[in-house]
Fold this sequence. Notes:
By secondary structure, the protein is α+β, with helices and mostly antiparallel strands. It has helices at 30-36, 55-65, 73-84, 101-107, 127-148, and strands spanning 15-16, 25-27, 40-44, 50-54, 87-89, 96-98, 113-117, 122-126.
Amino acid sequence: MSQGLGAIPNLLLGTYTPRLDDKGRLILPAKFRNQLATGLVMTRGQEHCLYLLPLDEFQRMYDKIRQAPITSKQARDYLRVFMSGASQEIPDKQGRISIPPLLRTYAGLDRDLAVIGAGTRVEIWDLQAWEAYLEGTEVGYADTAEEVLPDLNF
């Protein structure tokens, strides 16, 4: 008899397709609300998505970024882009957060969204951009397993 995994604490998983309302607000998927209820930081992510980071994860990332030498132009550039778009948010009682216009523009968000759990963070994508990204990336998914997880046997 096999046992189920049970709850995986603090792991953000899954894909959801909510809509942005007319005021630029997103209702967080119910599965993410507990981990983000006390607050989060929203900022620019890679590939023109947005990152929603629980406060402890944002602090962990910031601590790593600031360890980079200030003499590195690449490190300074990354820190500036990452922090300048950051917005600290607390979801309201309905689980809604406002996405600032700067970040909506950066991610090309209009109405239809893909909200994905990426382990320690949530990513917000324009739905069409997410579908195009996934289509282009799924092809190489199996081929990169050995590079990303060299000691894991499937």
